[in-house]
Description:
By secondary structure, this protein is mainly alpha-helical. Helices cover about 50% and strands about 10% of the residues. The model has no long low-confidence stretch (mean pLDDT about 80).
Amino acid sequence: MAVKTGQAASQVCRQHVEAFQKSGLTRPAYCRKHRIRVSQLDYWRRKLSSTGIGEEAAQWVPVTIAEEAAEADCGIQLWIGKLRIELHRGFDRRLLSEILLAVNGPC
């Protein structure tokens, strides 16, 4: 890409940032396609974002959580090597402690 100065450079920056946002490509893929450095695209995005150009301002969006989702059992999984332990609400902490001691062996 030829080096430009002043308004022409600013316009090229803005066009690249907008094109990248609409492209659906990753930053590296977009930069490879257009032969620019990822760091340069990141710089343009930060610069235009700080001036309020090129990116929409963040907005608060109301979120409603359904009762079903709030009451769902949101268990977790622990992976220790090939061993998987699933924990659900109300699990026995003492039993978990004994299992972990058994898996890890004596310290």
